[in-house]
Amino acid sequence: MSVNKEVKRITTHILQEMKHRGEKISMLTAYDYSMATVLDDAGLDVLLVGDSASNVMAGHETTLPITLDQMIYHAQGVVRGATRAFVVVDLPFGSYQGNSKEALSSAIRIMKESGAHGVKLEGGTEIVDSIERIITAGIPVMGHLGLTPQSIYKFGTYTVRAKDEAEAEKLKVDAKALQDAGCFAVVLEKIPAALAKEVAESLHIPVIGIGAGQYCDGQVLVVNDMIGLTKGFKPRFLRQYLNLYEEILGAAKSYIRDVKANDFPNEKEQY
């Protein structure tokens, strides 16, 4: 039984304790107040306001178009709905790469304007300067390695990363660099399970996996995928717990039928 059901707010310290005692960390994305409220009530440890909102909320092909202002808007709703979970917000593409001063400015805006508890950045050694500058300002940073969607045009594919020895070695170096820079946790996306296990065992900070196997310290999924609200997206790593697309489709069809038949509203549903 998790003792964390009794805490008022999950913190980076509690997440560190969870790793040390072997308790898995549960994490899902959230993009609005209503969903955050449900997930927080369920007892999620971490809510990620992901730049995946660019895909699932706005319909873009990639995560690249979403702006800092839009991320802050989504984060504000999630923070209002989460009374217990630790809320992390993705720094969007173009708000931190290659400029540590801009990275700090972006992170400060997210923290001040949304009330979030930390930020997440994609990349390894090449963004260490930005990470260190953000952490110096007192802002917790979560790293992200493996498949990094903001670099999709560099990779050219969403296939599994770090399958060859050279890329695997770089990932291990990057993971250690992120820990040394002060990250409180690292996400590993779509890499071989054996590599993720090696990284998780080598780091003293929590390692959260998505498509990275069962040996990570926790797991994260895009909530719209997990509840089956995303049409047609079913990668191997996804366990779909509901099929809300079909449920909502059926409900909408029933509503249309009742309206057309003048069955809604009935006498009990009017004033």
TrEMBL record:
HAMAP family, A to Z: PanB (MF_00156)
Cofactor: Mg(2+)
Record: residues binding 3-methyl-2-oxobutanoate: 51-52, 90, 120
Record's function text: Catalyzes the reversible reaction in which hydroxymethyl group from 5,10-methylenetetrahydrofolate is transferred onto alpha-ketoisovalerate to form ketopantoate.
Gene Ontology MF terms in the entry: 3-methyl-2-oxobutanoate hydroxymethyltransferase activity; magnesium ion binding; methyltransferase activity
Listed GO CC annotations: cytoplasm
The family this protein is said to belong to: Belongs to the PanB family.
Family annotation (Pfam families): Pantoate_transf
Domain of life: Bacteria
Pathway: Cofactor biosynthesis; (R)-pantothenate biosynthesis; (R)-pantoate from 3-methyl-2-oxobutanoate: step 1/2
Entry EC no(s): 2.1.2.11
Subunit structure: Homodecamer; pentamer of dimers.
Main localization of the protein described in the UniProt heading: cytoplasm
Free-text remark on how the cofactor is bound: Binds 1 Mg(2+) ion per subunit.
Subcellular location: Cytoplasm
Catalytic reactions of this protein: (6R)-5,10-methylene-5,6,7,8-tetrahydrofolate + 3-methyl-2-oxobutanoate + H2O = 2-dehydropantoate + (6S)-5,6,7,8-tetrahydrofolate
Active site: 189 (proton acceptor)
Alphabetical GO biological process terms: methylation; pantothenate biosynthetic process
The protein's name: 3-methyl-2-oxobutanoate hydroxymethyltransferase
Entry keyword set: Cytoplasm, Magnesium, Metal-binding, Methyltransferase, Pantothenate biosynthesis, Transferase
Keyword check for Plastid: no
Positions annotated to bind Mg(2+): 51, 90, 122
